[in-house]
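A.,

Following up on our hallway conversation. Structure tokens first:
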């Protein structure tokens, strides 16, 4: 691995690890202040809002792809402002959809008390405001990612996460478990400490101080790449949130908390592949096809050697850690499904690589088509598993779709990882753990 790639990976790792420390402190305090049901409802709200990020239409990733290739600052400024104005309009459309449909969806899709429902509905204007903030932020991060300014990007991310966690917690302490206040402060924190600083940095990197009108040829080019990325980014949140949505509607908000807490912990096991693939993306976008495949396979081999013992350790310590972190009454309910989720994260980490390679080489359509094929079998397996097994069924559904994703993506990207001995040996250690 090149020295620059190692350094960029280190930046991304630190940018992922530091927010974990903040979460370890704040999550037990949230549970104490707003309760298990309140935390579950809040988790559903953020999943719901995250899905409206699809109004980005993949332009954030498309712009990062362009910024990694372009060297002309005038062209980069044109791409930047085209992306900003386009995503602002798309975000406003998304905000309108969320504002007018949110009440109906929260009332009919999720089980929650009348008081919590009223709090969430009262926060709909704030949730609507968050949609254009999310879509425009995608362009800002695309600039910083594409120009490989990973230290700056992660520094901004850590600062933003700190305020996103701490300020709503302070609000809950001062105003009680009122979700309207908590959601409003979270959205304002994301705007003031996330989107605005990132926008200033992106403009300084490109020197694009003077706003420009959008250029139609760049709109078409970004949407051409971003269209399939959007389809993929619509499917991924569905598969990522369907388990919690179904648990919330079929079992109740407490089940969402018992699933989301171990999942939040277990997904930290994917920070290494996430850091590596994020650092690789600009390099693979700019290189040729053969080099991109070889770099991906080499990085994947190294990852398997690093990732497997980490996941084994995670499986062994997850339930005891939950007991110490949020209490043994929660750990008894969340621990068993957490073990399934932790084992699944090993597969999820591998899936980052073929997905990243397809997007870097301008073929997000392959990943999108394959993920569409996953939806129906995933829905059927997940519904059946939750219906008969409850909370554990959510973990089984996640394991099923992750295995399906792995098979589809590796074959779709033409990566022969299943024929490599290094793939099978770590797998045995994981299942023993």
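Then the amino acids I'd put at each of the 433 positions:
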């Amino acid at each position: 691995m090149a020295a620059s790639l190692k350094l960029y990976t280190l930046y991304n790792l630190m940018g992922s690890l530091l927010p974990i420390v903040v979460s370890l402190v704040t999550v037990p305090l949230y549970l104490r202040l707003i309760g298990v049901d309140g935390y579950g409802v809040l988790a559903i709200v953020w999943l719901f809002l995250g899905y409206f990020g699809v109004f980005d239409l993949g332009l954030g990733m498309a712009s990062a792809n362009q910024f990694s290739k372009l060297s002309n600052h005038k062209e980069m400024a044109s791409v930047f402002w085209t992306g900003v104005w386009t995503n602002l309009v798309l975000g406003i459309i998304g905000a309108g959809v969320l504002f007018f449909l949110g009440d109906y969806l929260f009332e009919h899709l999720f089980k929650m008390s009348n008081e919590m429902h009223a709090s969430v509905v009262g926060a709909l204007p704030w949730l609507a405001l968050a949609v254009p903030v999310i879509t425009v932020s995608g362009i800002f991060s695309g600039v910083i990612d594409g120009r490989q300014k990973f230290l700056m990007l992660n520094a901004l991310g850590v600062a933003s996460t700190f305020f996103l966690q701490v300020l709503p917690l302070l609000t809950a302490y001062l105003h009680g478990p009122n979700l309207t206040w908590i959601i409003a402060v979270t959205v304002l924190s994301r705007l003031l400490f996330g989107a605005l600083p990132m926008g200033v940095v992106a403009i300084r990197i490109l020197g694009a101080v003077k706003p420009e009108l959008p250029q139609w040829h760049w709109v078409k080019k970004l949407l051409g790449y971003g269209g399939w990325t959007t389809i993929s980014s619509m499917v991924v949140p569905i598969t990522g949130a369907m388990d919690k949505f179904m648990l919330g509607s079929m079992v109740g908000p407490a089940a969402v908390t018992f699933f989301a807490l171990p999942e939040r912990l277990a997904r930290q096991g994917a920070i290494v592949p996430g850091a590596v693939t994020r650092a690789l993306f600009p390099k693979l976008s700019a290189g040729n096809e053969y080099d991109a495949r070889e770099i991906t396979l080499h990085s994947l081999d190294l990852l398997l050697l690093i990732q497997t013992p980490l996941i084994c350790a995670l499986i062994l310590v997850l339930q005891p850690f939950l007991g110490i972190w949020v209490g043994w009454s929660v750990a008894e309910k969340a621990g068993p499904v957490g073990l399934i989720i932790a084992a699944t994260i090993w597969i999820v980490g591998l899936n980052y690589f073929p997905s990243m390679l397809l997007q870097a080489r301008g073929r997000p359509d392959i990943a999108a088509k394959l993920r569409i094929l996953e939806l129906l079998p995933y829905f059927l397996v997940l519904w059946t598993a939750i219906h008969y097994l409850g909370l554990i069924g959510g973990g089984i559904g996640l394991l099923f779709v992750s295995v399906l994703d792995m098979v589809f993506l590796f074959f779709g990207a033409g990566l022969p990882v299943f024929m490599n001995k290094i793939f099978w040996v770590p797998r045995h250690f994981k299942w023993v753990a």
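The chain has a mean pLDDT of 80. Curious whether your intuition agrees with the design.

B.
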